[in-house]
Write a structure and sequence with these properties.
The protein is mostly beta strands. The chain is built from 3 helices and 39 strands. The protein has a 5-stranded mixed β-sheet with strand order 2-9-8-5-6, with no helix packed on it. A 5-stranded antiparallel β-sheet has the order 19-18-17-16-22, with no helix packed on it. β8 (95-105) and β9 form a beta hairpin. This is Putative lipoprotein. InterPro entries: PKD-like. Keywords: Lipoprotein, Signal.
Length: 534
Amino acid sequence: MKTIKYLLGLLLLATLSACYEDKGNYDYHEIDEVAVKGIPESVEIDRFSKLEINPDISGSIFGNDTSKYTYEWKIADKVISTRKDLDYEVGVAQGSYTLLFTITEKDTKVKTFVTTKLIVNYSTSSDGILVVSSKDGKADLSYLRLDIPNAKFMTMFYNKNHDESLGTHPRQLHQTFVDGAFAYVRRYGGYGIKLICDEGLVQLSNVTLDYMGKIDKNFFLSYGELYPVPDYSSYVPEYMNNIVFQWRRTPYGSIMNDEYLYVIAGGGIYVISYERAKKPEIFYSNYVGGEGQKCKFSPMMFVTGRKPTPNKGKNLNAGWTTTDMECVFDENQGVFYTFSSGELTAVDPDVSFPGYKAFYGEDTYQMGFCFAAMEKEGKVRFATFNTESQNHIASVDATEASPSSRFFMLRNSPYVYFNTTKGIYKYNILNVASGIAPNTSDRIISLEELGYSKEAVISDICLHRNEKKMVIAVSRYGDDTQGKGDELKGDIVEVSLEGAKPKVLNKYTGVCGVKPLVIYKYRTFGRNDEYLVD
């Protein structure tokens, strides 16, 4: 019986097999095999530089017909381009990445992959020219590194690499050094680039130029130990300045760095102390005078004198020895004061300038001898005085200057550079006491001599710390105050100041937006650019 059952089972299987219809798809197609050339195995590039790769693609079926494929370039799972040829401004942070190029055949969706090792460095940590300007009403950064020849400006790169824009209406761009020194950066992060704009006093890393927070009410509450807690309701930053008073290397290799940052906000004085191995300390917050005083300080504050700190034995000193006094101007009284240990002393009790607002001041080639610029209803007046003697304040009208002029004092001679919208001047400050105002004979170069037409204006200048060259920021936007349109109309011109007449060293056209502010950005502090202790 078992045998019959087995035979019947075999017969049933044979019957089922005979009825099975093979419906498989055996219509095979040849696969297009793609060969890719022109992509290096590894690429090393500076952040914010252009990465350009133009691959050569050839298919076994379609040949060089690149229209048969779609393309995708990715870094760290982020798509950076969907074109065959890569033209990408590198915005990722310093580090090592895998650059993935994917080629997809449109009909079959078959993919071909090519990978490249991408190493990104920080070019922004070097010496360079840093510009902040505006486009479509928003501030942005442009940067040129100076440590390699024939480098190109990285233009308006900040906003497209950050979720939030840099700010609006930038008014002052400045660099500090201790909070940008290597040891400080390693411990706390670099905060050496500072910008005053509508959003406040913004800090950027001097290494990466990334956003690093603000010096605001929370900053003072975090680092201050002042009691009672000062009133911060009027804190609107207007001005900042700094002085490095210690930069010393010991025989044991350690370095001591100390620096003060002065901030004028809402008419009050704020002083922040930075040291290499410590968090910031707040020395003054919203100081508006001693008991019984109510001052409104102009956006100007500076140390009244300095001289190079000499080396002592094997201790190398690159900082400044100062008078330990600052100069400020009270708009309520129209009086220049020295400020020391929380006390105000009138520079000259018999001289006042009612209705004036000081907007620039600096110590000069002579210890204690100071120069300042102030304005009243748009008219400028220069003043000189000596805080180390009983000399009275001398002053003179300066119709060639304007409240928007930028000033740079020479460290070893009695001259100051300043700009108007149409030219650069070099003025002997000893002429103030003689009643000799700056005039057209003090102008050393004009925009016309630089090849510009009437609609162009000088927006800003910056003197290099070696005092041998200067950068000039020029705007060709005319009446456009927002920087509208795609074309950049801001230029940077670098001139040599050696010789009787400035000579153009470099001219960079269309590298920034409207109302540019410019500084020479330095990798580290160097007194007069001649003595570096790093």
